[in-house]
Amino acid sequence: MIKKALPSGCAVCGHQDDLFICSGCKALPYCGRDCQIADRPAHKAACSAIKKARNVMATEEQKLRHHPGDVMMSKDPFTSCVGHLLGGGGSKRATTYTSLPYLDVKDADMFESVERFCHPFFDLSHRTCVCLLKIRLLLELVRLEQSTDSLGPSPHPVISAMLKSPTPISSAVGASQAIMSSDSNTRKAMIDTLMKQIDALYEAVQKANEHFWYNLTDPEVDLDNMPSSCTMGSVGESQLAVGNNFFTWVKTSGALAFIITPSS
Ligand SMILES: [Zn+2]
Ligand SMILES: [Zn+2]
């Protein structure tokens, strides 16, 4: 585990001027040969480990850059995935580190089509994350509405309950001009779109793995005892996906209830 950040000056004496970077790991700064040689015994193992990791990363990056594109990922994801919220940039990591263009999900389309996430070979865990993100967005839109008027004659029971307990709106929704300045009709259309997308994802998850929704809501699943490998559609795959996602679902108020409550 990394216990402290890399030094800002020379790794040995802390000197700030005329620094050069170790040519092996390209990570540690030194002020001169003397400090570098003095640090050699302590730094040797870390240096070669970092160098090895860099090489692996460079190879993987080249593979991604020359990827021809398939159902899981578009061609050259570093360019083509810029601004996509759900394909790989939907994680907290991506919203935190936005200096690289393909990790920047600001202004991404939160209503992005779910079609490719419904493909039978799409990763189960990723698909369920996309489903949860859509549910979160839906629940927030509903809270914004604060009224059942735009939800039709018989809204989902969980949605009706949510209206009675308004909670703060997330920064992602709060920052979206399209949502915050929308009128009731536009929001109704957004809610409608999301309901259809969630339905499609729910069905796709059910088709790909009939155990997942049951396992997600079944407290008997042993989260500390996950299988190390699994096949598609198996109980093991479902357990792994539940293990990866369970706490995110639980922490999203209303999400589990939304999945297990039958609509009226
Ligand atoms: Zn030094
Ligand atoms: Zn080094």
TrEMBL record:
GO MF assignments: zinc ion binding
Residues annotated as domain MYND-type: 10-47
Keywords: Metal-binding, Zinc, Zinc-finger
InterPro entries: Znf_MYND
Name of the protein in its database record: MYND-type domain-containing protein
Originating species: Penicillium diatomitis
